[in-house]
Design goal:
heterotrimer, A mainly alpha (498), B mainly alpha (119), C mainly alpha (490), B: 119 residues, mainly alpha, elongated, C: 2 domains, 20 helices
Chain lengths: 498, 119, 490
């Protein structure tokens, strides 16, 4: 077997094994360097896998050589390749940029542990994406969740602790719901392998336990994915987490749960369950629409920068769910594209927030006056990523909005109403992004900042942030690669099913 | 007949009741430790569900012995799975308790409403 | 340089220029101004260099990126866009000259940001002019909005920020809320959004929908300032005068009416639209805007706000001319874009010059100012006469063509509107001229002379252009007739 064949396993194993080793790297610079190197390596693996998928090469890997329904399998198709790019990209970029910010927020003695938890979180998220059986998804989900609880609790503010406790309770309930669902399906089908499950669900005599399982799984994952109204843990957790952790997790954590949700509802359950299409759409669409509108409205009146962006994340999850709820190739590829593009925009925004936070301790909008003259590059990057979040043409965000609107138009007689909602929420995004822009550019600095010398964030932080901002424009003008992945992901998910 | 059918699902009823008890505790208690206890009960219910479904009537432990053929044994897989899930549950509980300890250090209380008032 | 690569150079040049200006700003003001001048001269060289090709009927086109199947960033140069780009790039040079005088004379802050954003806005303008399909047009349309926002909010005080918020709010919300759905609708009906002579919608839409789509386009393109989406234009007057002059008399607002005209001609097709009764409303809305804005202008006391409302009215001339849907009127529409540009930029230059020299912003303060600033007021007079449409000024030529088109279509509403608005224009401009030249100055005013020399040179140049266009408009008419000829062939 050549190396390429082992890549799906390496993708998980490399960060997983590196995590305990990092703890031993005591001088903190080394721990950072080690973790970053591992994260970059993971990213390189993800890129290689994505290229392989683009060349029509879907990787499957049987752990220990045991064949599919019996052994544990890892699989990488177009959708997982896209997710892998997002997860490892976000993890690596945030680490690469984050040293100054992490040094500022985390005590030196705890940093090796922090980096180790970071790698564990990353390997857990990656594991969810590549795992091809239901129980391993659960295990990886818990690995990533436990690690991210630790990461979030690392925040210097004591309010991080109640926030993380809430997240822990809700995350565990979500994961346990998922476990119940998997158990019920296993009970009826006797398999855990996703592909096998899909094949056997059709033969089940009594469909009721499967329906219950579908309910448990969908709700449990919706809780993890922060689908409105199960999102209450998000604003506090994102706000209180260390800034780099927010940048990492906001870009990918909830999306991975959403990825599993889509995978389960389309691959495993959709095919054989009568009316599941309609039930899923009926469940997802109203929640998505409510989430988009309510969360955007909340963001419009939010006074704290990170909280505002966290609210906006909930709205964006709504977009992804909305695309999925159309149950069409167009809708799903819009969702998949938005997974990628939103990660790019929101990751960039939170990185810029980290840059700002390096100078401004208090991130309430009213405190941010004068930032544009002190930190022109940061503010510039923030504006570009903000435009991408709004969906201005020429940025990545526009591409997925365009796809989503097209999918909405094809979705049926209510298409125009949905288009109206999407456009309305885009306008709401204009409002909340522009509130920040006005605060950064036109507000007078508050008294204690007025005298301080003008300084930018550290170069390291700034360069990565700028690079992400440029990528937002690049993928707005040349979106071929993510779009191709998104399209083939959508057609794989719906293959022969419509 | 109907009653018998319901009684036949006895262990699942137990699972459902324990599950609800646990969830209720998580939601209604304001004491963080009690919340965690509720969470533990909630998870234990699921363990029970997995264990109960692998039981085959008259089955024994799945150990291959020489000379014994056509032995009926219980499905080992859910037990293995649940062993993993128990480990996960224990670590979650441990982490949860650690956070409660930290909360107690920072806030001097583990009552949810008092913590909310403190900020 | 081939015409194809010239397109990309024309769009890229101001971008590079913006970067150069930003860098040069670190070195010194003179270097920065030199960078601006250099960029605008090379832009003129590139853009005007394309003129012969277009005059001979060439239509260079280039595709940059296929964003999605059927959706690409592509450019095509055709006569309307050529005219617009030539106009904007030419006036940018004069405006830069004026800016130097104005910004220095006024001791404005953040001048580097000002010049850099100006260059960005020009890049967006050229992009709009050369856009080969609706998506590209939309892309640069939004870029223009965003790049002019820092210019409008230049001063940065709370009142300015509030006005800039209106500016951005109206332009972005109309473009996202109406323009974008219209574009998506077009793509989904016609399968493409390419600007094609004769239109792409013929036979693909039925009657009431045509009117609805047209409404989405016209009101979605807020830059055309058709009532009721005109509020941003008076709000934008908080910007420094060079911005109002080039952007809010030429580049931005003309981008609006240009886009409307282009969509009427190349997306709907004028013959298709003429046959659809549901498209008639546009003419009435434009006529209403002309009359209404002129009446509002009558009641303004601030010079720049008066000019803003006058601009709103004049923009609707172009929209109305396009909505007459007759070849002569389409030529009139493009002529009026040029004529109004020359006249209005002169007026704004004059208003700015008055402000720099005397800090006067209100109309009643202008008594007797003609004696102190003879050059400025002479230019102002020429601009005002052109707005009214008195020969020998540019305004007369375009009005002539629009009227001819209106008669060709037997459109009495248009004829009446033009006559009424001419009267109204005279009613708000002539008193100013009388006041400035013939009344006595108030006692105790500031003692001042002419504005900075650069500013005066700039405004005299544009005034001369206003006069010259009356005599030498042949090439423009010839160029724009191609638009109509292309239509007749189909």
């Amino acid at each position: 077997m050549d190396l390429l064949a082992h890549l799906p396993a390496l993708q998980v194993v490399v960060p997983l094994l590196a995590a305990p080793l990092i703890v031993m790297l005591q001088p903190r610079g080394l721990a950072w360097a080690g973790a970053t190197a591992v994260a970059l390596m993971s990213f390189a693996i993800a890129v290689t896998l994505a290229l392989a998928v683009l060349n029509g090469h879907t990787s499957e890997y049987a752990m220990g050589g045991w064949p599919a329904p019996f052994g544990i399998t890892l699989a990488v198709d177009a959708l997982s390749a896209l997710m892998l790019l997002v997860v490892t990209g976000a993890g690596a970029a945030a680490l690469l940029a984050g040293k100054p910010s992490i040094d500022q927020q985390i005590e030196p003695s705890r940093q090796p542990l922090f980096y180790s938890a970071w790698l564990l979180a990353m390997s857990g998220l990656v594991g969810i994406v590549v795992a091809a059986d239901a129980f391993n998804i659960f295990v990886f989900m818990e690995i990533s969740s436990l690690a991210s609880y630790i990461l979030i609790a690392g925040g210097p503010d004591r309010r991080a602790l109640p926030a993380v406790f809430k997240y822990l309770i809700m995350g565990t309930i979500g994961a346990t719901f998922y476990l119940i669902g998997v158990g019920l399906i296993y009970m009826m089908t006797g398999t855990l392998n996703l592909a096998d499950m899909e094949a056997r669900i059709g033969d089940v005599s009594d469909i009721n336990p499967i329906l219950v399982a579908a309910g448990f799984i969908t709700i449990g994952l919706a809780l993890k994915a922060a689908v409105f109204p199960l999102h209450v843990w998000v604003p506090n957790a994102y706000t209180q987490a260390p800034h780099m952790v927010t940048a990492f997790l906001a870009a990918c954590a909830t999306k991975v749960a959403l990825y599993v949700l889509i995978r389960f509802d389309y691959m495993v359950l959709q095919a054989e369950l009568v009316d599941h299409v309609i039930q899923f759409a009926l469940f997802a669409m109203p929640l998505a629409i409510l989430g988009i509108l309510v969360a955007s409205a909340v963001a419009m009146f939010e006074g704290h920068l990170k909280r505002l962006l966290a609210s906006s994340s909930i709205a964006q999850i709504g977009y992804i769910l909305l695309g999925a709820s159309f149950v069409s190739v167009a809708g799903l590829s819009a969702s998949a594209a938005h997974l990628f593009n939103h990660a790019l925009a929101k990751g960039g925004l939170f990185l810029a927030v980290a840059c700002l936070a390096y100078q401004y301790r208090d991130l309430r909008l009213s405190q941010l006056g004068g930032a544009s003259t002190r930190m022109p590059w940061t503010c510039g990057a923030f504006v570009v990523c903000g435009l991408s979040l709004i969906g201005v043409p020429g940025t990545a965000g526009f591409i997925s909005k365009w796809l989503l609107i097209n999918a909405a138009l094809q979705s049926g007689p209510w298409g125009w109403a949905l288009v109206g909602i999407i456009l309305l929420s885009s306008l709401m995004a204009v409002v909340y992004i522009w509130r920040i822009v006005e605060a950064l550019y036109f507000q007078a600095p508050i008294a204690e900042h007025a005298e301080a010398p003008l300084t930018e964030a550290p170069l390291q932080l700034l360069l990565v942030t700028a690079a992400i901002a440029i990528l937002n424009i690049y993928f707005g003008l040349f979106p071929q690669v993510p779009l191709e992945l998104a399209n083939s992901a959508a057609s794989v998910l719906l293959e022969g099913r419509l | 007949m109907k009653l018998l059918e319901l009684l036949g699902y006895f262990n699942y009823w137990v699972f459902a009741i324990i599950l609800t008890v646990g969830l209720y505790a998580v939601i209604s208690k304001t004491n963080l430790i009690k919340k965690l206890i509720g969470l533990s009960i909630f998870q234990s219910a699921v363990f029970l569900m997995y264990i109960t479904m692998d039981k085959v009537e008259g089955g024994t432990a799945p150990v291959i012995q020489e000379g014994v053929k056509d032995q009926i044994f219980s499905n080992p897989l859910p037990q293995v799975l649940i062993l993993t899930a128990i480990v996960v549950g224990v670590s979650t509980l441990a982490l949860g308790l650690a956070i409660v300890v930290r909360i107690n250090e920072c806030y001097g209380t583990i009552e949810e409403d008092e913590i909310l008032d403190a900020d | 340089m081939t015409a194809e690569s010239a397109i990309l150079v024309a769009i890229g040049l101001p971008l590079v220029g913006a970067l150069l200006i930003a860098l040069a700003g670190r070195i010194g003001a003179n270097v920065r101004e030199a960078a601006t001048a250099l960029t605008s001269i090379s832009l003129i060289w590139v853009v005007w260099g394309m003129l012969p090709t277009i005059m001979q009927g060439g239509r260079p086109a280039v595709e940059v990126s296929q964003v999605m199947p059927g959706l690409s960033i592509a450019f095509t140069v055709e006569p309307l866009g050529m005219l617009f780009a030539a106009l904007a790039s030419g006036l940018w040079l004069i405006n830069s000259l004026y800016s130097v005088g104005y910004m220095r004379g006024n001791h404005e802050k953040h001048q580097t940001r000002f010049y850099a954003c100006f260059a960005l806005a020009l890049s967006a303008t050229v992009g709009i002019a050369f856009a080969g399909n609706l998506f590209t047009l939309f892309l640069f349309y939004e870029l223009l909005t965003l790049s002019t926002y820092p210019l409008v909010s230049h001063k940065g005080d709370p009142a300015t920020v509030r006005s800039a918020r209106i500016y951005l709010g109206v332009l972005l919300s109309t473009s996202i809320g109406l323009f974008l759905p219209a574009i998506i609708w077009t793509y989904s009906v016609a399968g493409s959004g390419d600007f094609t002579p004769g239109g792409i919608l013929a036979g693909k839409l039925n009657d009431p929908e045509i009117g609805l789509l047209l409404a989405l386009f016209v009101f979605g393109i807020g830059k055309a300032a058709v009532m009721p989406v005109h509020k941003w234009l008076p709000a934008a007057m908080v910007a420094p005068t060079p911005v109002s002059a080039l952007l809010h008399a030429v580049a931005v607002v003309k981008a609006g009416v240009f886009a409307v005209t282009k969509i009427i001609v190349y997306v709907f097709g004028i013959e298709f639209l003429f046959a659809a009764p549901s498209s008639q409303w546009l003419l009435y809305v434009a006529a209403f805007t002309i009359i209404c804005a002129s009446v509002v202008a009558l009641r303004q006391t601030n010079i720049k706000r008066l000019l803003a409302y006058s601009t709103i009215a004049q923009l609707s001339y172009v929209v109305m001319a396009a909505a007459i849907l007759k070849p002569l009127a389409e030529v009139g529409a493009s002529l009026h874009m040029v004529a109004h540009a020359f006249g209005k930029i002169t007026l704004f230059f004059a208003a700015g010059a008055i402000y720099v020299a005397s800090k006067k912003t209100e109309i009643h303060q202008l008594r007797g100012i003609g004696r102190r600033m003879p050059w400025t007021m002479a230019a102002f007079t020429i601009g005002a006469l052109s707005m009214i449409g008195v020969p020998p000024t540019a305004g007369f030529v375009s009005k002539w063509y629009i009227l001819a088109g209106a008669f060709e279509a037997n459109n009495l509403v248009a004829v009446f509107t033009i006559i009424a608005s001419t009267v109204l224009n005279a009613a708000y401009f002539l008193p100013i001229l009388y006041m400035a030249w013939f009344e006595r100055e108030q006692e105790g005013g500031k003692d001042h002379g002419e504005a900075p020399i650069l500013a005066v040179i700039a405004l005299c140049l544009t005034a001369i252009l206003t006069l010259a266009f009356f005599l030498f408009n042949g090439p423009v008419i010839e160029l724009e007739s191609q638009v109509v000829q292309g239509l007749n062939q189909l």
